[in-house]
Amino acid sequence: MTVFTLDDLRRIMREAAGEGEAVDLDGDILDTPFGDLDYDSLAVLEMTVRVEREFGVKLGDDEVGGVKLPSEFIDLVNSRLQPGE
User: Fold this and answer.
1) Could you point out which of 19, 30, 72, 83 has its C-alpha 20 to 30 Å from the C-alpha of 47?
2) Under DSSP, is residue 42 helix (H, G, I), strand (E, B) or coil?
3) CA–CA separation, 32 vs 23, rounded Å?
4) Within 10 A of 57 (CB to CB), how many other CB atoms are there?
5) Is 59:77 a contact under the CB 8 Å cutoff?
């Protein structure tokens, strides 16, 4: 079964919008708001598109719009992954 991990999210965040000088994505970011990580709504949208393409999931705009933390994003993606994929 495929699982979307924090390492997957970090990689996709870097690919989608890079990493600001004041931000350490390798630190404990699970409960840090995306805004505090210098990721605005456009960056989160780009992350979402990349995750949908790479992991074959569909994430609703309303659901993604309500996600404020990396931990919430990971939980949302994993809720869409089907067993055995």
Assistant:
1) 83
2) helix
3) 11
4) 19
5) yes
3 state DSSP class of 23: coil
User: CA-to-CA distance for 77 and 1, rounded, in angstroms?
Assistant: 13
Distances (CA, A) of 21 to 5, 12, 45: 23, 17, 21
Most distant CA pair in the chain, distance: 39
Tens of pLDDT along 10-61?
A: 999 999 887 777 778 898 999 999 999 999 999 999 999 999 999 999 998 8
Q: Contact at 8 Å (CB) between 79 and 85?
A: no
3-state secondary structure of 5: coil
Give 83's pLDDT tier (boundaries 50, 70, 90): low
Select from 35, 27, 41, 30 the least CA-distant residue to 70: 30
At 13 the three-state DSSP class reads helix
